[in-house]
Amino acid sequence: MSKLNLEVVSTALDKILAYSSGKDIEVTKKGETSTLPGKKRKFKETIELQIGLKNYDPSKDKRFNGSFQLPIPPKSGLRLCVLGHEAHCTEAKEIGLDAMSVDDLKKLNKNKKLVKKLAGKYDAFLASHTLIKQIPRLLGPGLSRAGKFPLLISQTDSLADKVTEVRSTIKFQMKKVLCLNAAIGNVDMTKEDIERNATLAINFLVSLLKKGWQNVKVLYLKSSMGPPQQIFF
Asked: What is the pLDDT of residue 165?
């Protein structure tokens, strides 16, 4: 059963969206309430779920790792590149994505600096099923080291659907610290869509924890440049 108070989530999102649109909001710190002037940024701010865990020992307890596809893509501005055969490269360009063929990849000549530059230019890569096994031979380990080894586009996949999947998927992975975060929305989305994404993301995370809600210490929602809003205490 979810222990999330939806009224608290709703109030937090009201403040986040108001602040990002340039409106003043009230913030409480150490028991004192003050007014914080809002500021509209020149870029689309991401809204992030920030999690603090408790009763976990990363050195002893089994580390969890799970991915979940949100109903509304929170990362619409994600920079993607398709490494593909001719048909996928053509389809990629038709939907506004950059694409590279085998010949394009060969021109990099496994140059570490060029591969590192390529990895830094995009947030994620997609690769055709006929090409993905050739990536290490063509580019070396550069994309893997950057944590950006391409996701597979199978023979039956729709490229547009695959792109939506990538832009909608969040990942929770337990590492050496008890803090996690995931992008669950952006300030251009409706409040209802952000709330829906946030609720589903939190409930999925709780399902990964060994003791469920007993392992959740604190939850925040925060826009890129705004103050954090606590939604679970």
From this structure: 92
Amino acid identity of residue 32, one-letter, is: E
What is the end-to-end Cα distance of the chain in Å, rounded? 17
CA distances (Å), origin 136, targets 38, 51, 115, 127, 139:
47, 35, 11, 12, 5
pLDDT tens digits, one per residue of 110-136: 899 999 999 999 999 999 999 999 999
The answer for residues whose C-beta is within 8 angstroms of residue 5's C-beta and 6 or more apart is: 231, 232
For residues 220 and 6, give the distance between their C-alpha atoms in angstroms, rounded to a whole number: 13
Distance (Å, whole) CA 151 – CA 134: 13
Work out whether the CA dihedral 4, 208, 185, 95 comes out positive or negative: negative
DSSP 140: T
Residues 6+ apart with CB under 8 A from 169: 67, 68, 69, 70
Amino acid at 171: K
Residue 153 half-sphere exposure toward CB, CA atoms < 13 A: 26
Pair of tokens at residue 185 = 């929305």
Phi, psi of 104, deg, nearest 5 = -65, -40
pLDDT digits (tens, 9 = 90+) for 165-220: 999 999 998 888 899 999 999 999 999 999 999 999 999 999 999 999 999 999 99
Type of residue at 90: T
